[in-house]
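User: Fold this, then the next.

Assistant: Folding the first:
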Amino acid sequence: MIHGERFFGRLLGGFGEQAPESPGLQWRTDAGIQLVLDPQGRVIDAHGLQRFGLGLATGEGTPRLLLDYLVPGSTQALEGVPADWTGHSLDLDFQGPGLNVLNTRGWVQPQGDHWLLQLLDISDLRRHSQQAGNREQCMQLALSITQQLRQCSAARLPEVIHEALRCVAQQWRVPCVALAVRSDTALGWRLYSAYHAFDAPLLWTSGQTVGEVLDDLDATAPRHINADLERSRSPLLNSLFGNADGLLVPYRDQ
């Protein structure tokens, strides 16, 4: 097995053989993170450029447990002590500054009287996987809504549209969603249906008219509504969104 194959084998969680202990270990500062742990799992040293920003307090005071640096809920792989983790792929999410999270995958091996935990940054892999999953879920939702709309009668259309908006809101995790349509009358745009989560403010109502506030918007691309910008650029649009950030997604049936 060449070096590259061994690298990807570890990245994918395949540990066919234990990496040999090296008394003259050369720290890799250009890739990943290397943490030195005591037998109880406390972090006593750290190496690698990516260790910065994780708040690893090494060399000062009493060493802290590795668990203390991880995002709550991502510590199931660390039951017991380092000796119990050998031979396993460890997916660990470190809490960075603010809300930043570093997703890593690694393995542990003995190093003298201590343990060496070597970690690779898999944030991109995790993000790509999540994006692919989100696309699949959105596609399934769109197909489901399309099928329901084709099968429903005109009398049930408002009910089906409202249910579709509820599904979209839950899928996108947004509190309020509405469908606006352009009428041929002087009233301009009106809200055909509106959905609000149980704890969300009642921004809109079904049948509400909003005039021509949407006429000048680009009908070919979504537009992010920034409350700070719209407050001076388009007060009416800002008022429509309740002085909050939002998103407008245009659609035209060709």
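Now the next one, as you asked:
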Amino acid sequence: MGLRRVALVALTAGCAVDPAAHERAVWTDGDFDDWEGVTAAVVDPVGDVPAGSPVDLGAIAAQDDPRFLHFLIDLGHTVTVQGMRGSVELVLDTDGDLGTGGPYGGVDGADLVVVLTRQPEPERDGHGAGVGIRRIGPGGAGEMEQASRVGLLVSPTHSSDRFEVRLDRVAVAEVTGQRRAVAPGDTMAGRLRYLRAGAVVDETAVFRHTLATVPGEDPPLLGADAVARRPEALRVVAWNVSSMSFRSNQDAFRRVVAALAPDVLLLDEIHFTVTPEDLARFTRDLAPAGKGWTWWLASG
């Protein structure tokens, strides 16, 4: 699959943002305001790694709502969490049941490992790519699986020293074979680890998080005003659409673009079969009256 980038420009109108909308839930958006006042579940000492290490684990905090498990992790230095040297692992016992999963990374009854920067050959100490998960069983960790299996979302996607990690609670329960329903007051456990060249460089103590909600309904959604562009702003939206679903299910992508109303849109890793004609059809009826999109398509 070739790497392609496209951009389009149009003039659109915006309206005011409702700041109160953000107070109703945790939003995995790379803005850490909704973590203010949340006490860290564990804090790892600073400087307990070899000189020059790109990661020096710090604090990890956790929250939950009826739909998602949320984590805020501090990696100590600015890194690209999907393309660094080594990998960060978030090891989780998601149900507090020692009879499921297995021991892994010092966590008894671990069910799942979230892997930030997948390493096809960990012992080579190279730059990996992407994120994924591994299920834990009595015999240890399984093969790497797609992040979408558990609704994994990591933000920001640019370089930072802190990252939000979000997991879909229902999907996690299905993937890990959870045997009993969890309830408020139940405790989950976890540990954050940094591995490089196949060896553990840094790890936190095992932390615990007491669940506050029952898995169930979706949290309140943001209103349209919350994602609207301010009138004086130029909005640029960048979206990695590296799959055939962009071509086969364009209506879903179109709804998102219509809601965001960008002035400039960059679609990264467009499938090689997508043509300029496909892109023109994609943006048909998305521009205001009398306006149109101008496309540039490049590969490399």
